[in-house]
């Protein structure tokens, strides 16, 4: 399928790498209001450049659009692309409110187009093994399910663009921006949340509206309890990995980025030895923990390939808008609790 990218910034370059490497897709065009930026990215990958979105979307060869604009500016370009008859893959979060996501989902349905999200942390062998264990009930009664993203962003990061650290365009801080993929992974593995209580603060940054530290207590529908802790003010030399930890009456698994710190089940299976041999954590730095440019693009590549395969097969992709909505619903409930002094919010 022929891809077009909306947004020629850092994320646009990231998408271009993933599209170029993928099976089943080629980079056809790039749109950015900044004609020079669109031209630079397009020239690098042999694509067409546009600074007029109407002309970009009118191209009959264009089939699928990826969106890499700021988080709170996903609605308009995604809506325009869907209404122009294009499939859409949108960066995280799909949008910063569930109401906006519902608007996009309605447009996708009306135009019979696929609307999918970038949920790239679902696409690696560690997550495949983790999800299989969860689906097979290997944890017994799931009692604990938590996520920890203790990352660092310096003041220059927030000062680098006017939209960073704003509610309107970032949709939140350490939770919505840096931690949404880990929150998605937690829900993907543990199932839906029932209620949350949260506390948030801005402790170490200036001139931002949003939190750089947040802790939430989560109750899941299956009865498990857990914690979501996220930060952009926890420095370390190499950066802490993003962690998802599940435990129950028959097993415990702790995932750190793409590898395991713990893989331990009461009832051993033949595949467990191979998982411990190949997927246990060494001394890797946290992916994107201190530098957002350090994230690998192969997970985006697999994400894009999954969406293309789903379109060809006439099914919903595993990163559908319905899936992407779940993490935003939980995150906005967490923010509601934090604004209301830790009040319990039911989902």
Descriptive tags:
347 residues; alpha/beta; Rossmann fold; Dihydrodipicolinate Reductase, domain 2; eight-stranded mixed β-sheet; six-stranded parallel β-sheet; 14 strands; 23% strand
What does this structure look like?
- With 347 residues, the protein is an alpha/beta fold.
- The chain has two domains: 2-117, NAD(P)-binding Rossmann-like Domain (Rossmann fold); 124-291 and 327-346, Dihydrodipicolinate Reductase, domain 2 (2-Layer Sandwich).
- Helix content is 38%, strand content 23%.
- The strands form two sheets. Strands 13-12-11-7-10-9-8-14 form an eight-stranded mixed β-sheet. The protein has a six-stranded parallel β-sheet with strand order 3-2-1-4-5-6, with helices on both faces.
- It is globular, with a radius of gyration of 20 Å.
Give the SSE map.
Elements: E1 2-6, H1 10-21, E2 26-31, H2 35-45, E3 48-50, H3 53-58, E4 64-67, H4 75-83, E5 87-90, H5 98-111, E6 115-117, H6 125-135, E7 142-150, H7 155-159, H8 167-170, H9 174-178, H10 180-190, E8 193-201, E9 213-220, E10 225-231, E11 243-248, E12 251-256, E13 259-265, H11 270-278, H12 298-313, H13 321-339, E14 345-346
Parallel strand pairs: 1-2, 1-4, 2-3, 4-5, 5-6, 7-10
Antiparallel strand pairs: 7-11, 8-9, 8-14, 9-10, 11-12, 12-13
Q: Helical segment tally?
A: 13
CATH topology of the largest domain: Dihydrodipicolinate Reductase, domain 2
Q: Give the % helix.
A: 25-40%
For the record, the CATH class of the largest domain is: Alpha Beta
**Strand-residue proportion:** 15-25%
Q: Say how many strands there are.
A: 14
Q: Evaluate the radius of gyration.
A: 20 Å
Please give the alpha-carbon distance between the first and last residues: 38 Å
Q: What characteristic shape results from the CA principal axes?
A: globular
